[in-house]
Amino acid sequence: MNFDDLEVFVEAVRVGSLAGAARRLGMSPMAASRSLSNLETELGARLIHRTTRSLSPTGDGEIFLPHAQALLEGRANALTDLRPHGRGLTGHLRITASAAFGRKIVAPMLPTFMSKHPGLQVDLLTTDEQVDIVAQGIDVAIRIAPLRDNRLVAKRLADNPRFLCAASAYLVAFGCPQKLQDLAAHECLLATGGSHWSFVRDGRVVRQKVSGRFSASSIEAVYEACRGGLGIANLSGWYVEAAVDRGEVVRVLLEDAEPQPLDIWAVYPSSHMIPAKVRLFVAELEFRLKEFRAA
User: How many Å apart are CA 66 and CA 10, to the nearest integer?
Assistant: First the structure.
């Protein structure tokens, strides 16, 4: 079975266009069409429905797609293991992360990582929406939250301590909470749709109802509101530690509880044949996170 033909099929399904697949693979539309025809002839099955405006896999195409992806991943892993380290990775690496984590942690590490692998192309999708990584063809998602989808495969990369913080001006005006129950009387800056924060008290996780006049769908907006004196925020250490060091905001320490830490996860669409490009990226990110915590 010709790997070039498999690449045309997989890429065409991913981008929804045979012409688009040809452009991504650096070949002519005629050559891409010929490759797809060769593959369908070899398999004795039609893999793709094609019209002038759209492309979609047939039933047989949907069945064959994960097998085609596994064959390509297997080849990529084999070549990477055989290739001298100096030649680096090749292909496309598709990553998704939250907007704040992608901007502050992932994006700054990519120049060094990509310089080690000049043949690698990277697409970083930053969004605070939950992405269907299977449907969108994502290689790895970085998530900071309890994992609810048991179909996915995840690797824990690091812990994610969280801090209560506020602007000095807010604390001067409204006082500093001393105990967990004191938060009920304060302006708390929430994620959109949120109503509780989780804390650890006496070794147990407890949920505290909180409220405030401001909420936002992004960490960055919550932080700016906090820095501007609108209230108390509950933010990840990787996001707010530098701001605390600069004096932009102040940590709020409670006598009887501390915010429950979350974990940072690398989430894969499948445990089968995780590509070398994903394994090496995740290893690099894990190393960077350990460096960050040690700093």
Answer: 9
Radius of gyration of the chain (CA): 24
Rounded to the nearest integer, the mean pLDDT of the chain is 88
State the total domains in the chain.
Answer: 3
**Tens digit of each residue's pLDDT (9 = 90 or more) over 73-131:** 777 767 666 654 555 677 889 999 999 999 999 999 999 999 988 888 999 999 988 88
What are 211-232's pLDDT values in tens digits?
999 999 989 999 999 999 999 9
How many Å apart are CA 61 and CA 72, to the nearest integer? 16
Same domain, 270 and 149: yes
Full strand arrangement of the beta sheet holding 204-209? 204-209, 196-201, 258-259
Q: Please give the full DSSP string across 259-282, using - where no structure is assigned.
A: EPPEEEEEEES-STT--HHHHHHH
Alpha-carbon distance of 256 to 92, in angstroms, equals: 48
273 and 256 in one domain? Answer: no
